[in-house]
Amino acid sequence: MTAAALDRPATAAPRVRAALQDPPLVRTALIAVALGFVGLFLLLPLVAVFTEALSAGVGAYFAAISEPIARKAIELTLLVAAISVPANAVFGVAAAWAIARFEFRGKRLLVTLIDLPFAVSPVISGLVFVLLFGAQGWFGPWLAAHGVRIIFAVPGIVLATTFITFPFVARELIPLMQEQGAEEEEAALSLGASGWQMFRRVTLPNIRFGLLYGVVLLNARAMGEFGAVSVVSGHIRGVTNTMPLHVEILYNEYQSAAAFAVASLLALLALVTLVAKRALEWRMRRETGS
Amino acid sequence: MSVEVRQVWKRFGEFTALRDVSLHVEPGELLALLGPSGSGKTTLLRLVAGLERPDSGSIEFDGEDATSRSVRERRVGFVFQHYALFRHMTVFENVAFGLRVQPRARRGSDEDIRRRVHELLELVQLEGLARRMPTQLSGGQRQRVALARALAVRPRVLLLDEPFGALDARVRRDLRRWLRQLHDELGITSLFVTHDQEEALELADRVVVVNEGRIEQVGAPDEVYRRPATPFVFGFLGEANWLPTNIDGRKGSAGFRPDEIEISRAPLDGRAFAARVQRVQSLGPRAKLELVAESGALVQVELAAERARELALEPGAEVWAAPRELQVFFEDRVAS
Prior knowledge:
The complex is a heterodimer. Chain A has helices at about 1-5, 25-55, 60-65, 70-100, 105-115, 115-120, 120-135, 140-145, 155-165, 165-180, 185-190, 195-225, 225-235, 245-250, 255-290. By secondary structure, chain A is mostly helical. Chain A has 2 domains: about 20-55; about 55-290, MetI-like (MetI-like fold, Orthogonal Bundle), CATH 1.10.3720. In chain A, helix 4 (about 70-100) packs parallel to helix 10 (about 165-180), helix 7 (about 120-135) packs parallel to helix 13 and helix 12 (about 195-225) runs antiparallel to helix 15. Chain A is globular, with a radius of gyration of 26 Å. Chain A starts with a helix and ends with a helix. Chain B folds into 2 domains: about 5-235, P-loop containing nucleotide triphosphate hydrolases (Rossmann fold); about 240-330, CATH 2.40.50.100. Chain B has helices at about 40-50, 70-75, 90-100, 105, 110-125, 140-150, 170-185, 195-205, 220-225, 230-235, 305-310; strands spanning about 5-10, 15-25, 30-35, 55-60, 65, 75-80, 155-160, 190-195, 205-210, 215-220, 240-245, 250-255, 260-265, 275-285, 285-295, 300-305, 320-325, 325-330. Chain B has a 6-stranded mixed sheet, sandwiched between helices. Chain B has a 5-stranded antiparallel sheet with strand order 13-17-14-15-16. Chain B is elongated, with a radius of gyration of 24 Å. The chains are: A mainly alpha, B alpha+beta. At the A-B interface, helix 11 and helix 12 of A face strand 6 of B.
């Protein structure tokens, strides 16, 4: 009897379902919906971009991304990112520091304001700059008198991009710095470190992955921003067109293979960003988890 | 080095953390700041360190005004409650930090730094762990790394915030003894914050009892225990029973410890009172009684289990209780 009881196969064990576990059918359906969604809205467009880009052949693909106007657009995009990204990395660290380390009046207002660029439509953001610096804008006449061009020129594009991408680093760092607390920094000061030594040797190493994470997302957005840049750029070919704007122009002119060729570069950037983001998330979890 | 705190006030928004606090610390002394949480003891420690600025009042090191000096200039060693080890640095680099950030002229060669770090790791008995990361250490080991790191810069004062707060009871006792030894060896003026009266009484040369932003009493452990200046000190330093008193028309209360009460079945004279046993609890060699006095007041008693058996104490028994030592505090604040 005892032996028989012990030999009872595992399948005969009473079926106990964990309270938080859904029935298999529901689970399968949920997974199917999620995968279907990802396939339809993410994977399919990505495949479409690359198929369309290569539809006229590899030669046409490279011609499309190396012709002078396309190259100008790529260069401008890189230039804008090269200015906006470091600037926002610095602003973001400064803002996160101020918010995480100090108590001051208006702190909550500042936290809300940091999110403003995410809350406002990019087109509106662009229009605000036109309103401020355009020919008919508040500072327009003064700027014109001094020979400074902001709207329909590179400075406007840089301003709009920087504004749009401001929240990325700060939003990433504020919770991180709040969680880490100020004790290590205070310890560094008590050991005789100057403010700069403390920042370089203690603060920065502690936030490096969070900062890099923010910078990766910030960079992707800076290169891909369309709405705000479109409003302030003036679409001057070879002068104020960034990659996304160039894609639009090509597409409107029915040069769809060329449009998708340039778009494929942005899609590649997105893929690299995703991989970098995953890797950084993994590193951050390891740093805090161990 | 001596430390002088003069009439210091500190507020955080609406909350007043310290009210007119003055304190003198002798050179080479080991001083405990004892008080409940929120009493202001940590704020006082941080003010001495220079991590906070007083709203008014001054802080002197060796008679020299240090109030406006930054934490960097004060040369104090600060050990944080949760150690605050640099998480991305090895034990070696943590201890070396204070040496590496010194101006080039004072810094010494890499070889000097290496030697000093190993000397310190030896002092805190962690020679083998130089290459470990902080996360790979136990609480007690982290504590000692934090101490070695603070000592590396040869501080003039050592400040420790709840140095044993995050450790389990056993490690705590060992480390406590070890810290006392280390202090006697190095002779460095030290202040530590604690909410544990046993720790303060056992470890410190003098104890400063802090409550609600004020210093209630300063004195040697025995002195604050035997001659508490205020009812708070008496109550905070151990279990206490309170009975109302009225001596020559002066109202007040008398405090006495549960283990300083004589219990008898026969009437006792002097300040004895009659009571009924409500509960008896045996704890190995000791027994705890809960008595109800005639006035209705509850009185806790602790006595040898053997004595409790002798007296055949059980709930309902009528006994006489006589406090051997009474601390009388009058409401008009004139101590007995």
